């Protein structure tokens, strides 16, 4: 069955992962000091792709088998990087996680501990179809080609195209049009910055993250019923004409920031 990747944790226990988040930045980026996982996951610090299609997730089973068993069992320690990095986070509905990451030096970490795994082989075999070539992990990218992209939006390799009228409303930051009639919480100040997860196949909003709302980053303080309505209304009104994918990447979910602060 292709619903998840089984990973043997011990003779008596077994867990499996049904989703993979990929965090990355341009390989040629340098930090003045080492950055830890919490910093790397801050809004605006990374590009994120999510894979949830069981037929895609199961293909990472070979990578999981290569990871040292003792490190899979170990308690996670934060991943860190001095610059360009690729960070993988396997998750499941139980809340189990397993991480794997590497930077420009090609040292591969599992759950934060270094290993002898081959970063170049991982990139070539498992990640080439997911990470945009504009990020230079698959060799130096032609900067003349790269200049054709609006780097503030399309650096992940995708271009989300809205109807002109919707694009203007987004540029003006008009939350009332999109979600103003859902709930007062939908447009309150802490919820005016929202990162939306867009399902590439169906062009619909499937998740939100409110980076300024520290008490409830996921639902912005809305109860489950109101939040479901928020997602439905936002998906209906935030009409997406198409998602251009010139590099033929295979992520299931990509992410965009909406700024309703005007």
Walk me through what this model shows.
This protein has 262 residues and is of the alpha+beta class. It has two domains: 5-139, no CATH class; 158-259, no CATH class. The chain is 24% helix and 29% strand. It contains ten helices and 15 strands. The chain has helices spanning 37-40, 54-57, 61-66, 69-73, 119-127, 143-146, 151-154, 164-172, 175-179, 224-237, and strands at 5-8, 14-17, 19-24, 30-36, 47-51, 80-83, 85-91, 97-103, 108-110, 113-114, 159-161, 193-199, 204-209, 242-244, 253-259. The strands form five sheets. Strands 5-3-7-8-9-10 form a six-stranded antiparallel beta sheet. A three-stranded antiparallel beta sheet has the order 13-12-15, with helices on one face. It has a two-stranded antiparallel sheet with strand order 1-2. The longest helix is centred in the last third of the chain and has 14 residues, at 224-237. The model is unreliable at 7-15 and 146-153 (pLDDT under 50).
Keywords:
alpha+beta; 2 domains; six-stranded antiparallel sheet; three-stranded antiparallel sheet; 29% strand
Topology, element by element:
Elements: E1 5-8, E2 14-17, E3 19-24, E4 30-36, H1 37-40, E5 47-51, H2 54-57, H3 61-66, H4 69-73, E6 80-83, E7 85-91, E8 97-103, E9 108-110, E10 113-114, H5 119-127, H6 143-146, H7 151-154, E11 159-161, H8 164-172, H9 175-179, E12 193-199, E13 204-209, H10 224-237, E14 242-244, E15 253-259
Antiparallel strand pairs: 1-2, 3-5, 3-7, 4-6, 7-8, 8-9, 9-10, 11-14, 12-13, 12-15
């Amino acid at each position: 069955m292709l619903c998840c990747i089984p990973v043997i944790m011990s003779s008596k226990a077994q867990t499996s992962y049904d989703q993979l988040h990929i965090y990355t930045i341009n390989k040629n980026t340098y930090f003045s000091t080492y950055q830890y996982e919490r910093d790397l996951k801050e809004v605006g610090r990374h590009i994120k792709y999510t894979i949830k299609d069981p037929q895609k997730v199961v293909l990472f089973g070979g990578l999981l088998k290569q990871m040292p068993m003792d490190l899979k069992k170990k308690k996670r320690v934060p991943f860190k990087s001095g610059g360009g990095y690729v960070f993988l986070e396997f998750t499941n509905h139980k809340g189990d996680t397993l991480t794997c990451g590497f930077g420009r030096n090609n040292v591969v970490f599992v759950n934060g501990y270094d290993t002898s795994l081959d970063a170049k082989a991982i990139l070539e075999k498992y990640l080439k179809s997911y990470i945009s070539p504009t990020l230079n992990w698959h060799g130096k990218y032609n900067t003349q080609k790269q200049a054709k992209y609006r780097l503030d939006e399309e650096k992940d390799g995708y271009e989300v195209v809205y109807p002109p009228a919707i694009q203007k409303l987004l540029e003006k930051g008009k939350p009332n049009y999109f979600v103003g009639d859902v709930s007062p919480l939908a447009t309150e100040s802490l919820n005016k910055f929202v990162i939306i997860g867009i399902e590439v196949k169906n062009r619909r909003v499937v998740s939100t993250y409110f980076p300024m709302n520290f008490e409830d980053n996921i639902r912005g303080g809305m109860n489950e019923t109101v939040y479901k309505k928020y997602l439905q209304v936002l998906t209906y009104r935030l009409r997406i004409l198409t998602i251009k994918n010139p590099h033929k990447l295979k992520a299931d979910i990509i992410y965009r920031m909406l700024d309703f602060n005007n």
